[in-house]
Amino acid sequence: VLIESSTLSPVWVRELAASAAKQGCSFLDAPVTGTKPHAASGELLFLVGGDRAVLDRVRPILQVMSRDIAYAGPTGSGALTKLLNNLLCGVQAAALAETLALAEKEGLDVPNFLTVITEGAPGSPLVKSLAARMSSRDYAVNFTLKLMGKDLSYALAEADRQKSSERTVAAARDLFQAAEKSGLGGKDFSAVVEPIRTT
User: What predicted TM-score, i.e. pTM, was given to this entire model?
Assistant: First the structure.
């Protein structure tokens, strides 16, 4: 059984599965959600695409590294679920970056403002974490900016394949690409705020 846990395009995952089948191997696409601390503590979430019976065979192996295993559907479904998960994370990060930069430029009391948004309706766990990082400029890596830009590009390619318009995602991807071009690719993806602060 071959298990691919990178974040790849569904098209590429299906090509890998076909190559594995030619060699007589079963294949699962099983990307994960979580950050470095989650990986270190065995608290990742596996998003698995492929044959459910194959997943059942390897479940004990994946359980050692995870808090849960979510079966997403046939081959490519794990990869697609991960891309859509990261799509929403990237859009939230880009929107928060623009919001925070505007609050700073307008001269608001930023700590008070961040309390309002993180304790109110927009205050998802991700927004709370990113708000703290952006306001303190702590860009120690949990997930790199470059990888988020890559995942948004993969998600947009899948949207194009489905002839689906994803304008918000395209705008977020452009912000991440601009941040990467400014030298922030190796920083945490919360660093997407920095170029916006200076424009």
Answer: 0.92
